[in-house]
Amino acid sequence: MDQKEIKQLVARRAVDTLVHSDMKLGLGTGSTAIPAVHYIGELMQQGKLKNIMVVPTSFQTMIACEQWGIPLYTLNSKEIGGELDLTIDGADEVDPRNYCTKGGGGALLVEKIVAYASREYAIVVDESKVVEQLGMKFPIPIEVIPEARIPVQRALESLGAEVTLREAVRKAGPVITEHANLLLDIRFSAPIDPAEMENRINQIPGVVENGLFTRKRPQVFIGRSDGTVITRT
Ligand code: 5RP
């Protein structure tokens, strides 16, 4: 199986395992989460899923839901009341404790708000995302208020991180997030304590959120090239 097929397989497996009618769902961003949106749309069109309410994590997810006519809400909608039954999302890395890093697609802020407001949380990845230590290979994004870019960079360097401002593609200058902030991508050359680092980074003035997800331990669906999916709880 190629990587695109693996992503479809694992997204569908998570939906088949966890999604049923009458659910309030958070739906994630990226090339593994979006096939889950399409599959939910398909099942709704076939009448196999009914009364699904979705809170999207990005414009990408919102547009995919709109294409399928999936009813969209926010966490603040009266019908949602600030709490979701389940969120399904992708990840950039997953460690042996099911701690994750996210934000490769720049949507970490709403992805974390939605994940932490969900009773159940599921992550869908292909096996290339499974690592022993987070943040050493794939960078961890930090969403930063533009005015605080350099002070935050200095504070992150003092925590041992190598810091790069994320540059846009097909736009001159940096990536501007969906909430008008900048992204600093950081890497560590030595292992970190992800739970401690998630808290420490968020104490730096000017940091809006970081891409370490340690407070909501997900069920992780891992798609493999042999066509199997393993589930880690
Ligand atoms: C977006 C994310 C994505 O879930 C993460 O980057 C994984 O994306 P993909 O499934 O395309 O590899 O966190 O902000």
Sum up the structure in keywords.
single chain; 233 residues; Rossmann fold; Alpha-Beta Plaits; 2 domains; six-stranded mixed beta sheet; four-stranded antiparallel beta sheet; binds ribulose-5-phosphate
Task: Detail the topology: elements first, then pairings.
Layout: H1 3-18, E1 24-27, H2 34-45, E2 53-56, H3 59-68, E3 84-89, E4 93-94, E5 100-101, H4 108-116, E6 118-126, E7 140-144, H5 149-158, E8 161-165, E9 182-188, H6 194-202, E10 207-210, E11 212-213, E12 219-223, E13 229-232
Parallel strand pairs: 1-2, 1-3, 3-6, 6-12
Antiparallel strand pairs: 4-5, 5-11, 7-9, 7-10, 8-9, 12-13
Helix pairs in contact: 1-2, 2-3
The structure holds ribulose-5-phosphate.
Characterization of this structure:
The protein folds into two domains: 3-130 and 215-232, Rossmann fold (3-Layer(aba) Sandwich); 140-209, Alpha-Beta Plaits (2-Layer Sandwich), CATH 3.30.70. It is built from six helices and 13 strands. The protein has helices at 3-18, 34-45, 59-68, 108-116, 149-158, 194-202; strands spanning 24-27, 53-56, 84-89, 93-94, 100-101, 118-126, 140-144, 161-165, 182-188, 207-210, 212-213, 219-223, 229-232. It has a six-stranded mixed beta sheet, with helices on both faces. A four-stranded antiparallel beta sheet has the order 8-9-7-10. A three-stranded antiparallel beta sheet has the order 4-5-11, covered by helices on one side. Helix 1 crosses helix 2 and helix 2 (34-45) runs parallel beside helix 3. The protein starts with a helix and ends with a strand. The relative contact order is 0.17. Ribulose-5-phosphate is lined by residues 28-33, 89-92, 102-108, 111.
